[in-house]
Amino acid sequence: MIRVLWLLTASLAWGHVGSPDVFFEGAAGHYRLFVTVRPPAAIPGVAEVEIRAASPGIREVRITPLPLTGAAAKHPPTADVAQRSKEDPQFFQGALWLMVTGSWQVRIEVDGDAGEGQLSVPVAAMALSTKAMDWGLGAALFGLMVFLAVGVVSIAGAAARESHLTPGVEPDARLRKRAARAMAATALVVVGVLALGNAWWKLEASRYDSYIYKPLEMMPRVEGDQLVLSLRDPGWLRTRRIDDFLPDHGHLMHLYVVRMPAMDVAYHLHPEIRAPGEFAQWLPAMEAGRYTLYGDVVHENGFPETLTAEIDLPAVQGRPLEGDDSGGPLRGGELSDGYRMVWDRDPLEVRKPALFRFRVVDGEGKPATGMELYLGMQGHAAFIRRDGKVFAHVHPSGSVPMAALGLTAEAAADPHAHHRGVPPELAFPYGFPQAGDYRVIVQVKRAGKVETAAFDATVR
Ligand SMILES: [Cu+2]
Prior knowledge:
alpha+beta, Immunoglobulin-like, 3 domains, 4 helices
């Protein structure tokens, strides 16, 4: 029951494209942890877990992989002890096998001076690519195969020619002929076996290809002032559905709409279901242009997906934005009423987990007052690469889908903790997956208005 209640009040969906690492900042008991989980690109595969502890006094950190939901989630296997770094005693590392595709969680247990603590990080495990065979290994295996094949044929020939021969006597023409026949027959068998082996290999490879993750397809079209999104399953897991989404703060989809390539206009909208697998959204007054759409959804089992599409929009008359919908033309760090958002930048590095810290200040540079939660969060950040190929929707708790987090055991503990007053400083844990030019779009709410700021980031 608690679980169901929490799902209804669960916070915002999260999603990503091309940014599979999971970043999470949270508390395990009295210990503050920054967790990075790097899921494998192939399943089964090894997920790397990195834990940075902000709190002192930790004796041991244990990590366990377990399914996010179902009976198996209640019976965790024996935990692995994470290795403490020799150079940095606050840093722990471990590796975990993820055996099947789907929604997992990494449970982290901490033991130390302040007692025991636990937290769980949801991780979506899926095969993203087939690993190509290393050239050198391929060449070596091919050479070995040729050697073995030639060897078998010549052994068959030698056996036919010389097995009944007295030592020292030369084989006559009849024996030579017999040897040639044996070698030809053996060669045929060897070629047949190799052909069967090749067919088997190809079958396995294509079977694996069908496991490689393919997001649901989203086909956008405009009907008057409405954007209509039709979903289609291109085939992946037979259990996947296009109509089993979990609401996040009452919304089944959280849709970012970004004008490309300038990324000078961005909206955060919440389309509603019109028919199974079909969403519709009233558009605001929008300038014409090519827009990229990123739609975050979370399936019933906690598995998140980001559906992408592009659409050329004519200028839209539209309706005023309502409810939780927000966005518009971007003006850097400039907000309404003379307020500003400031990014306290740290050096940016590829794949390095970091906290991205922002402050909202008034016209005199003093910390802003009147901050509110937007969609139950202190803030929402979208990290988008200029080419649109990398997208991550991140919250101050990290790039974890909050609906999925609601399925973990600790979720029920304090779901309303963040209603106690909203500070004007916020930080998002994230790491850029690849180099490139990014735009970071940060949304907060102040004095009843959702504010959208945008910053540029170059990652080498
Ligand atoms: Cu968000």
